[in-house]
Amino acid sequence: MSEVDYKNTLNLPETGFPMRGDLAKREPAMLKNWYDKQLYQKIRQSSKGKKSFILHDGPPYANGSIHIGHAVNKILKDIIIKSKTALGFDSPYIPGWDCHGLPIELKVEALVGKPNQKISAAEFREECRKYAREQVEGQKKDFIRLGVLGDWDNPYLTMNFDTEANIIRAFGKAVANGHLYKGSKPVHWCLDCASSLAEAEVEYEDKTSPSIYVRFAAADESAVEKLFNLSEKGTGKLSAVIWTTTPWTLPSNKAISLNPELEYQLVQFNDERLILAAELVESVAKAVGVESWTVLGSAKGESLELLQFNHPFYDYTVPFILGDHVTTDGGTGLVHTAPDHGQDDYVVARKYNIGMACLVGNDGKFTSQTEFFAGLGVFEANGKVLEKLEEVGALLKLEKIRHSYPHCWRHKTPIIFRATPQWFIGMETQGLRQQALSEIKNVRWIPDWGQARIEKMVENRPDWCISRQRTWGVPVALFIHNETEQLHPRTVELIEEVAKLVEKKGIQAWWDLDPKDLLGDEAANYSKVPDTLDVWFDSGSTYSSVVSARPEFNGNAADMYLEGSDQHRGWFMSSLMLSTATDNKAPYKQVLTHGFTVDGQGRKMSKSIGNIVTPQEVMDKFGGDILRLWVASTDYTGEMTVSDEILKRAADSYRRIRNTARFLLANLNGFDPKRDLVKPEDMISLDLWAVDCAFQAQAEIKEAYDNYQFHAVVQRLMRFCSVEMGSFYLDIIKDRQYTTKADSLARRSCQTALWHIAEALVRWMAPILSFTADEIWGYLPGERSEFVFTEEFYNGLFALDAGAELDDAYWQQVLIVRNEVNRVLEQARNDKVIGGGLEAELTIFANEEFSNLLNRLGNELRFVVITSKAEVKPLAQADVAEGEVKGLAIKVVRSANHKCPRCWHYSDSKDEHSLCSRCEENVNGNGEVRRFA
């Protein structure tokens, strides 16, 4: 018989499943198939009636291409949705987009000009809507390319007419519950946006500013002297000293704040007398260059209340007032107080009924009424204020300081605090702050430090300024009395009437509305508020405008919100505030946050550094599944490091998983589970162990998915493929698979195990390696549904019987022996004793425990260690030293027998052309019998 004939007697592995993934080329065709065959709708159909799990999509902003952070976010959501489906939940995914607001306005302004200049406001809004729609379509294609499944044909857009109407309804509910008020308060104001900013739209960057110490001369020195219990009177002019880095705010100064509990001293500095906090005298002296001083007297802050001091360059006096916000962390312990330009200043001034100066306009310039500085921009005015202070002798010291300063997140330019008439959601009026803090405790925060973070933010956050002076946004749908400025008494009803109009015609309905249509004869006394809502109100109200409104969610609340860690003060915060204000409860049960992406050296992505990794480039080079595997294998609770090198490592891991799947499929060639499946009681011991191994792995993988620990899923998957299967089980079974009779129990038992393992493995992979799992699914034998994504985790796995003779502990001990054998064989190969393992004959000298273990396998031990012969002898007879495993000494000799041309084992063949007795039995007889391996 020729060698070719022998080859034809073997059951060689065969599959059409390609060795190479070629993901970048193949994935688009798979996507087309998913959408042509309405995969998402089929998942919904198969999940009908199951317990629901709702992950509510935080809407990305509809502007620009998606970046790697977007990809991370959407992939994590998709993994959760798919794994929840596999865990037996009905888990719909409705993607969304944030569509109103300033970034879109600025883009459209650049294209068509500002509203009410070249184009009407109504036309401008339509252009904004058109631009947002284009941006949504572009981003949608990229999100779909990532393999993210969802209702992409019916996403929620905050600019959809029904969503706009529901945002207005959420606003109406907050009004009805008494949370809204109008006030002139300092708010973050961007000079470039010409609008107020939300807390989440502010970021802090370093900025160089003037650092100045300024004298405020006492209006009545004798009144001050009396209160300081002077030990000596001292000489020279008497002044209070403040420190500031914003000279431009001095024209708006209305008071000086002291801490009631601090001790203040009147000190002689050269030829003048200054009031400073006792704890800061030394640091101020050093800053202004005074080497020695005399303390003339001291007094507690509370005793100095309402003392009067002259404004440095205006003809009025300002009082000492008391506030707990004054500290000794820096400065002088006396705080320049301009209620227009600081939250603490505003709060403390209100207690004393001190009004605002209102000297700065919407454009960030001083009004025409501002003496000395009219028409100057605030930052431009800094220099002029310094000149004025110098001129009047009020400037004690000028330096430059580099410090952290608030900037606009869009323009990256410094912003100011500025008092403007705005609409606010009050944190205290109806106990909103306390209720929100209480609700936070009912939420599961992942990672758990998220709870303390948002608690601190809620504790310290100011009232929420919800109004904006913009064109493209949901209207603040209120009617205000022209004289009293009070809301219309039927405000809540009117808001609902407006919502109905907006539902039909969009937000333009508000601006087109003639007040007479709703107010009748009263219309003459009322005006429509021209402001729009903060865009964080839009997205913050989606728990109501989307989750409560979409039929897919069946009226259930969201189980999870998942976004980047910057959203504690963004979407998580606005959603919590609004849901608590309208429904008295948190809008979510769990909140999961992920870190930001950084490059291989831990640096932020930056065009200037040239280290930006785009998801589009990754998919073109590696494919979507490699990107998904990187996301899943990275611990998202910290910074997520990505680089070409890291992605190559992910590709290597992917290849190991793919090769395992290919081996399984190739060895299931010719297997029909209906015809060939072997019952567990008839299976060979090692095959039972392999299924048990998959059973244990699945329990761990399901638990990891359930706890959103995707890196643990990947680690367990890799261990299963590389260690338990690749380097042990799959290695051992090759001989049995290839050489025994095609329909023998020995082979069918093995194929049964491989089929169970493949059925489980493809489902474990599906939430992460979605494209590859779909590909594998098409090659698996047996009847099955069209897509793996409609399936739950495999329930056909089984554990070893509790009383199994060769249980998991047994095979773990065998694995120890096999690893030691492999080490010794490797050494023998290096020493040129043998070429391959099948040339070896082993003598395993073993202690009693190992002897009993190995002798149970009888003649099949050689198949486990993959040598042509393996016999066990007592350790006492060893003529070689013990190796790395105590109780084992292993001797290797090259076999003197002929190599069987069919199975390549060295045994009892008559010559190199003759079959060994085992192959003779497998080819021409009834086939060999295996019990263990």
TrEMBL record:
Short motif ('KMSKS' region): ranges: 604-608
Record family assignment: Belongs to the class-I aminoacyl-tRNA synthetase family. IleS type 1 subfamily.
The organism's place on the tree of life at top rank: Bacteria
Description of its domains: IleRS has two distinct active sites: one for aminoacylation and one for editing. The misactivated valine is translocated from the active site to the editing site, which sterically excludes the correctly activated isoleucine. The single editing site contains two valyl binding pockets, one specific for each substrate (Val-AMP or Val-tRNA(Ile)).
Localization of this protein: Cytoplasm
Gene Ontology terms describing biological process: isoleucyl-tRNA aminoacylation
Coiled coil region boundaries: none
Cofactor(s) required, per the database record: Zn(2+)
NCBIfam families listed in its UniProt record: ileS (TIGR00392)
Name of the protein in its database record: Isoleucine--tRNA ligase
Keywords: Aminoacyl-tRNA synthetase, ATP-binding, Cytoplasm, Ligase, Metal-binding, Nucleotide-binding, Protein biosynthesis, Zinc
Organism: [Actinobacillus] rossii
